[in-house]
Amino acid sequence: MNTVYSFQATRIDGESVSLESFKGQLLLIVNTASRCGFTPQYQGLESLYQAFKDQGFSVLGFPCNQFGQQEPGDSAEISDFCATNFGVSFPLFEKIDVNGQNAHPLFQYLKSAAPGVLGTKAIKWNFTKFLVGRDGKVIKRYPSMTTPESIRKDIQRYL
């Protein structure tokens, strides 16, 4: 498995999808949380999605409760929170683990393809972002504190 297209994920509405359905798009894959200091990044992620979705770009949000229990809700609560508070319209998926033995296979791949600082593979916190090229291969990993707006130039470069 050498691209994100090899993986399946379950949308927040319970529908299982192959990430191959995003083939040819530039993707920003993010582990998210609703009760985190970085939660306002949802607004910036939605802004990027709106600005570039017609050019073949998508944000894929994967809620995760592994960091400070900051995503305690179920799928309906998460979906409602994101839509109500940030107008999120980009694809959201069911809550997953991104670290440990139960880490979703997609995130196992992403971490391996783009290790963090000093080669660490573990995700340190919510809102770690992975930019994935139209070929399905990881281009770059961004830490939580990297704002969506600061990724705009990279997105424009790869569109």
UniProtKB/TrEMBL annotation:
Q: Where is the active site?
A: C36
Keywords (alphabetical) are: Oxidoreductase, Peroxidase
Please, which domain of life does this record's source organism belong to? Bacteria
Question: Methyltransferase as a keyword?
Answer: no
The GO terms this record gives for MF are: peroxidase activity
Biological process per Gene Ontology, one example term: cellular response to oxidative stress
Domain annotation Thioredoxin: ranges: 1-159
Which InterPro entries does the protein's record reference? Glutathione_peroxidase, GPX_AS, GPX_CS, Thioredoxin-like_sf, Thioredoxin_domain
What is stated as this protein's family in its record? Belongs to the glutathione peroxidase family.
Q: What is this protein called?
A: Glutathione peroxidase
